[in-house]
Amino acid sequence: MNLIKYAYKYIVKSLLLASISILILGLVIYGLGYNDLCINVLELGYWILFVTPLIPVLTLFIESLYKKDMEMMLTISIILVALIINIYFIGFSYLPFSG
Amino acid sequence: MIDVLALIFTIIMGSAMLGSMIGVGGGFIIVPLLSIFAGFSVKEAVALSLLSIVANSLSATIVYVRERLVNFKLGLLLETSTMLGAVAGANLLLLINEFLLEIIFGLVLIYASYRMIKGASLKEPKELVLSVKKKLYGVSASFLAGLSSGMLGIGGGLLKMPILVLLLSTPTRIAIGTSVFMISITTVTGAYIHFSNKLINFYYGAVAVIGAYLGAQIGSRLSLKVETIQLKRIFGFVLLFFSVIMILRGCGVPI
Closest Cα of chain B to A63: distance in Å? Predict the structure, then answer.
């Protein structure tokens, strides 16, 4: 089972393209002068972008459950917990110049 | 406004092209260029940079996954220790002299760049072989890389690539693919936090994401055509440039 390959090929790619299409649409709406609508559309585009990187992590977690790969399960669990702690409790970027 | 948008698009697209080609996010290029040429404050530039790197790294990873150039297990293992190191590093920031740390890290990275450039012509390993000892080295080095990220605010890819290539003897293209995969996980929290703190201009961000996506598509495909010797040398010189900047900053030069 190689779920991750299909996850990237179909889900991640689709979500990323959807995000970009919505952002382009938002800019077009801005160009037409509908500022309020434009902000809402752009925000939707950003939300889709932020959710997309979680898809591969969750897919790998499901794959590790299926394969009973304890090492991978533990690794991903730590990452997910760290992500949640980072966002909700610490609320800062530890990689401000991430590059 | 159009000229600012065009400038952002150009800077981000160019950085994404280079970054996705050699396995880094490009923040160390984006932030100074946006500050100098577009008049952004450092905070705004960092926020926009992180947002664009999310798009850049996702876009590039799609290409590398298709070419089977991403080692997910290794990436996740190293990412875990990097994240833990970064959280620890951010908390230790107050205890350490960051200028001295920048000089030390700059010197370490100069050595890494020398190894990358000099060793570029050496025969590439055909596949990745990870012993328990190598995994331990990789995890420890990633923890230190995360520590330095947390303390100095320096980026993931520039530290992860030498770990993957030099320490773990990962074939260069797999190292690049794995590195961009790791970056896509690392940057999303930072980008989201800046977004929720309203540090990202919606219009600039949209243009940045589009530029990053296109640049990464070009850069990652270019990476598949360029010889690995050249990729290593390009990365080596980029690392050398960055390490010199770190040393200068450590010596108090305002860069």
Answer: 11
By Cβ distance, the residue of B19, B80, B190 closest to A96 is B190
DSSP labels, chain A: --HHHHIIIIIIHHHHHHHHHHHHHHHHHHHHT-HHHHHHHHHHHHHHHHHTTHHHHHHHHHHHHHHT-HHHHHHHHHHHHHHHIIIIII-S-S-TT--
Burial of A84 (0-12, 13-18, 19+ CB in 10 A): exposed
What phi, psi does B190 have (nearest 5°)?
-60, -45
- Does residue B9 belong to the interface with chain A, where contact is any CB pair within 8 Å? no
- Nearest Cβ partner of B86 from A4, A26, A94? A94
Chain A's closest residue to B157, CA to CA, is A99
What whole-number distance in Å separates Cα of residue B27 and Cα of residue B186? 13
pLDDT tens digit string along B176-200? 999 999 988 888 888 888 888 888 8
A62 touches chain B (CB under 8 A): no
CB contact under 8 A, B210 and A23: yes
What interface predicted TM-score (ipTM) does this complex get?
A: 0.86
pTM as predicted: 0.88
Nearest to A87 by CA among B15, B87, B75: B87
Total residue count of chain B as it appears in this document:
255
d(CA B108, CA B105): 5
